[in-house]
Amino acid sequence: MSNNYFRFKQFTVYHDLCAMKVGTDGVLLGSLADGGQRILDIGTGTALAALMMAQRFPNALITGIDIDDDAVTQACHNVQISPFAERITILNVDLKDFCPSIRYDSIICNPPFFEDSLNCPDYKRNIARHTNTLPYATLLSMTASLLTDNGIFTIIIPTSCVKRIEHECAFASLYITQRIFIRTVEKKEPKRVILSITKQMPNQIQNITQCLMNNGQHSEWYSKITEDFYL
Q1: pLDDT tens, 19-34?
Q2: What backbone phi and psi angles, to 5 degrees, belong to 142?
Q3: Which residues of 107-136 are buried (b: 16+ CB within 10 A; e: fewer)?
Q4: Distance, CA of 211 to chain centre
Q5: Distance (Å, whole) CA 207 – CA 116
Q6: The whole model's pTM is what?
Q7: How far apart are CA 95 and CA 108, in angstroms?
Q8: What is the Cα–Cα distance from 212 to 147, expressed in whole angstroms?
Q9: How far apart are CA 81 and CA 64, in angstroms?
Q10: Coil, strand, or helix at residue 31?
């Protein structure tokens, strides 16, 4: 994407200072995550998902946290020029040091996901893309402490990471209640999965498979979930 911003119907997201730009993963998370009165966005980056949640849940108060100074600067700017500035707070803090006085009905995260792989030379992209700075064990244990008893944690990860997340959920006394597998096109295997995770053990796990593209165009499903956002 050549532009340093991405314009949506109700807000604009600048991303020239951020290692990870506006992309499909963030849009999927912001379009599908469960909401609540208080929402936490871990690793907010540009604040894309936080802004989308603010649009979808007009009574919610949203906090976005990130450890990258430039990302926080950009997220703050994106929030301030949006219609949702009074309901979104951006903090420059590591999840391990985040000690709020409240718990959250909804926690969302588009986490670093490359494990056991070579780091790229770009330090900021390493932070955004590799679990070195946010191991899944830390993410899940901290989420368990920040989530209300009936709250929902929603993350988007590569399908190859599901087993690792399931393992860490067991240690954190968390349970996967839904998996939405995302195919790029119908004939390919899913590359991403959106997980809904709670403190309550489900009677069964709901598994859904959706597709982003159909005959070179956005699928009916993807068009439907993003129609309130894309111009």
Answers
A1: 888 999 999 999 999 9
A2: -70, -40
A3: bbbbbbbbeeeeeeeeebebbbbbbebbeb
A4: 19
A5: 28
A6: 0.91
A7: 13
A8: 30
A9: 16
A10: helix
